[in-house]
Amino acid sequence: MIKEEFGDKVKISVPPNPDTAIMRGACEYGLDMSIIATRVLKWSYGVMVYNDWQGNDPISRMESNGRIKKFHLLACKGTELDVEKEYSVTMVPIHADQTSVLFQFFYTSEYNARYCDEPHVMKLGDFKVNGLPTASSGLDRSVLISLRFASMENTVATVKSQYNGNVYQTTFSM
Fold this sequence. Notes:
By secondary structure, this protein is mainly beta. The protein is built from two helices and ten strands. It has helices at 2-6, 18-31, and strands spanning 38-40, 44-52, 67-75, 80-82, 86-91, 100-108, 121-130, 143-148, 154-161, 167-173. A hairpin with a 5-residue loop joins strand 8 (143-148) and strand 9. This is 1701_t:CDS:1.
């Protein structure tokens, strides 16, 4: 089909043993995963944020505490990225006495999403971080939440306290 469609425009070359080429590439990758320096994202990835409800948000989504849960895009599908690059967002606690937080990560086949419960949005995983800095600083205890697409199979989530430098990490497998 490719030859029929593009054969008159470009030269199409097929290895004599395509199965062998695929196997060799898989073996080389398995022996040295660092040979892949970049990849193109098949999905868009994000984290649930718990924002103050705004006037342009649907009233039906406002929770009793005046907040709304939304999808915050970290990395967009189709992006070619360095496997060592991190995609991050800074967040702050919701409550002054909060010492733990549950981060929920999601992915979608779309380029972006507005809410985490949209039909095309799927949960990547949860990451509960305990032991956030003491509440003496109130809400001024930001954390940097990052995703790194370490390999073809794994996504690494990192939470770093901007207050005391503590780092928490987990890996999601797809």
